[in-house]
Amino acid sequence: MLKKFDLFISMGIYYKKQLIQHPNLLKNRIENLRGKIKLKLAPRYSFKHWYNRAKKKMNPQKKSIGNQTCLIYVIYAQDGKLHRYKQYFLDQIVRSFDQIFIVVNGQLQDEEIKILKRYGIVYVRRNVGYDVAAFKYAMEKISFNILATYETLFLVNDTLIGPLFPIQPMLDTMKQRRVDFWGIAYGEKQWDFTKKNIYGYIPVHLQTYFLAINHTLLKDPCFEEYWNTLMKTTTRNEAIAFHETRFTKYFEDRGFRSSSYSRCSEDTAMFKHPLILVKKDNVPFIKTTAIKQMSELYLKWMGEKQDFRFKKLVEFVNHSTNYPVKLIDEVYRTSFLDKKHIVIIDGTNDSIPQLNRYRVQNKKEQLETLGYKVIVNSLMECNIESCVNCFIIIIYRAIKTPFLEELCDRAKIMGVPVLYELDDLIIDTEYTNQLSYVQSLSLFEKSKYDKTVSSYRSMLLLTDGIIVSTKKLKETMQSFQKPVFINRNLASHDLIVTSESVLSGKEHPREIILGYFSGSITHNENFLLIVDSLVELFESYSEIKLVIVGYLDIPEQLNNYRDRIEIHDFVPWQKLPEFIKGIDINLAPLVETIFNECKSEIKWIEASLLKVATVASDIGAFREMIQSGETGILVQKDWTTQLKKLIDFPEYRKKIGQAAYQYVKNECQTTRHEDELTRFIAREFKR
């Protein structure tokens, strides 16, 4: 009874702390609940829509000041090529629009840009933010004042194959309808799988691969306001939530009316029922995603049977239209018979940037320099579709979820190995209980933490092999009776370039600066190892200073020297070299536990790129990688003696820093680096 009471009190303290640290937590929970209720009860049109509609009838808009039409066409430069079906699309529709603006997301060859300029004005931009960001970019370039002079603005992306027959009948039909904006098909109301939609659910919405906005909406100030206040779309789910499923309701709530050309309102109708839309509704386009139904591999991964209606669609296109069927075959071959690839799933959902950088992005870079295609997805955004045609799946630091269970089952059927990756000993409470941070958690917090650890272990057991970052971690993981591959932490190209640029301006001040860099809140006990030595050094050397960057509670023993201690908050990796270049000796103490023995040598790598000598505990990865006295100093107990040696002999310090720099540049960078993991991948690729 007492234990349950303690747990109850602990839960109260935990949630109080959460609400203080995250004041929007309660609000978000309430919004999620409201969203579920709205999904059940929300009508097609809100009261706000009818109220604003009535206002517009009482204050009718002036007639359009022009009859010109404008098209903004967004092209994704896949593999840096202009696919022929996109050029055919422009060839056929160019006469239906008075002005065409083409936005290229990515890079195309100069010859291909010249081809596009035949049709209109071309903008080339980085492939960021998805189609919605490209549309916004073009509208800002054109200016909203100019857009307001058009009768209709069309926003179209390159996922449409066609036109199978002239589009003018569709345009004429929709011109006769008294609406403010329209599209080809609606998507159904459904639960908010993005968990980001402001309505708490996904409302009925026009599919945004083809949108037509008439003058009545174009000239209204709310149209420009929508785009000016649109949030950044850095992920696919954000693009869906912030624009694709929001656009329709946003303007309908302001009294504007929408319509669709197709009568088929089932969600993803262009994908699921392309033949109905083309044959019965006279829709002149096919979505590229519908082509996937030609692939037996795709259908097998998705657990679906061959849809013979799609074969009938191809036959219909071949016999009843003038569209060259060979272009459909090209789309299939370039998009869905793509080169075999590797899928990496980030279980941290990029919530811990330093982990994502070293274990996900750097691995992607390493494998790409070896010639492999790599697709990275966060666990929140990953789907089975992205794994079609992959030959290896890597799951990094993810808890067990129903989706990952299903993915592992499908991968087993397809004969694709799934590897679980971890860079810390986080799969058993026997190890995590050794951490002082974990020991300091409340009863409720400890219960949540232990459940996460247990879930990591359950997920690992579902996979076929394990990826680790150190030899000691490999030894520990071999008890699971699965293949274990070492893939050490490496320096990325960007980190090397950034470090080199900083290195060229490195100064040599008179004082001696020691540096301690803490990447997480678990390092307090490690820092305590060197506190007595630091006190002795402060007393012995007036020129000694200490720089601390990151998460750390400063021990009381150092209070008398606070004027000689410089403290900085945790900084992203891009800014870290600036801080490292200002120190003379890098401190890397680790308490000797099995957990710490499995940690990697990241701190040594980062300091070595700035030619800074590292003094580290003689355990784990430091012992594996550092040659003591040559590329760093390894310490078992006497930190003071070793540090004094580096302080008293600057040339010795400089020699170690230079040797470490050369070794890391030669052996520890991502570019074409081969290891146990890459050798396994090479064998699987040939299989």
TrEMBL record:
Gene3D superfamilies xref list: Glycogen Phosphorylase B (3.40.50.2000)
Q: Name one Pfam family in it.
A: RgpF
InterPro entries in UniProt: RgpF (IPR007739)
Name listed for the protein in its UniProt record: Rhamnan synthesis F family protein
Q: Species name for this entry?
A: Enterococcus camelliae
Lineage per the UniProt record: Bacteria, Bacillati, Bacillota, Bacilli, Lactobacillales
